[in-house]
Amino acid sequence: MKEYKLNQNRLAEHTQKTYEQSDTESSDVLCEIDANGIATLILNRVSKKNAFDDSMIESLIHYIDTLAAIPTIRCLLLRANGTHFSAGADLHWMQSMAVKSVKENHQDAQQLAHLMQTLDTFPHPTIAVVQGCAFGGALGLICCCDIVIAQSDSQFCLSEVKLGLIPATIGPYVCRAIGVRYSRRYMLTAERIDANTAQHIGLIHLIVDTEAKVEENRLEQQIIQLTQAILNNSPAALQQAKALCHTCENQPIDKKLIKYTSHLIADIRVSEQGQEGLSAFFDKRQPSWCTNTKINTK
What GO terms are given for molecular function (predicted)? Predict the structure, then answer.
């Protein structure tokens, strides 16, 4: 079992980044938390195009669970080192699983499914930042994030059927993100999807033009803009809004849902942050959760 560390003392350092997993840059997942409570998970298996195996899946689950329990976290960025976001599952790992028992394969698949669910239900806003390819399971990861930014030369693909497999564990999140109709096409053809098409079908939200250093600056500016918008909002309201989306997704608009939403807004109006937000508006001041600390993504 791996030993993980998150250095909480660094949270107090002004815009200071921290990379933590036994303090080694060679780890397949890096974690950072800045002074604003913006956490970043970085896929760092560059030599394998950030393809994930059981070890990386375990690391991601650990960090997501740990970050979810830290009260000062406000937002989670999912990024990758290297040229590509992720090529999906490591084929050598998949090959090794093919000779194992059905029970072992079930357990292994459940771990990947658990990763998707853990990211999807993370209580704070999540932003995926994509460059290069995001294939297979990696496409599933971005479908579990609330917001997706991609460089203009990014490529996406549900490539499983080319290998005699199917995108089973990521399927529910893909179908929700782009709809069943588009899911049928791209699951059955394994076509590559360019950034413009990905935006059109709802797979990604924002495209940043690729122009060498100019592109990098634009990308970081876009990330800062989004994270600043999130930091300007009530942390409690953000969590409730995200939970509301999950609830509305899975329930019909009936008396039960109407009653739930009525209670939800009534409760948050009288909550501490609800009162603070309204008071700040009428007092023409920033609410207490706003920060003037500079956001630095590099």
Answer: catalytic activity
* Token pair belonging to 186: 């791209």
243: which 2 tokens?
């939970």
Asked whether the beta carbons of 111 and 54 are under 8 A apart, the reply is yes
DSSP state letters, 158-196: --GGGGT---TTTHHHHHHHHHHHHHHHHHHH--EEEHH
Asked whether the beta carbons of 127 and 149 are under 8 A apart, the reply is yes
SS3 171: helix
Burial 246-268 (b: 16+ CB within 10 A, else e): eeeeeeeeeeeeeeeeeeeeeeb
Place of tokens 């297979």: 136
Model confidence, pTM: 0.85
**b vs e for 210-232, b when ≥16 Cβ sit within 10 Å of the residue's Cβ?**
beeeebeebbbebbeebbbebbe
Q: Measuring CA to CA, which residue among 32, 2, 4, 7 is closest to residue 17?
A: 32
**Cβ neighbours around 81 below 10 Å, total:** 15
d(CA 135, CA 156): 5
Give the residue among 140, 161, 127 at the shortest CA–CA distance from 88: 140
Q: What is the pLDDT along the chain (298 residues), one digit of tens a residue?
A: 343 445 444 333 323 344 344 445 669 999 999 999 999 999 999 999 999 999 999 999 999 999 999 999 999 999 999 999 999 989 888 888 878 888 888 888 899 999 999 999 999 999 999 999 999 999 999 999 999 999 999 999 999 999 999 999 999 999 999 999 999 999 999 999 999 999 999 999 999 997 755 556 889 999 999 999 999 999 999 999 999 898 888 888 888 888 888 888 888 878 887 777 777 888 888 888 787 656 666 5
Q: Can you give the residue ranges of every domain in the chain? A: 8-231, 235-283
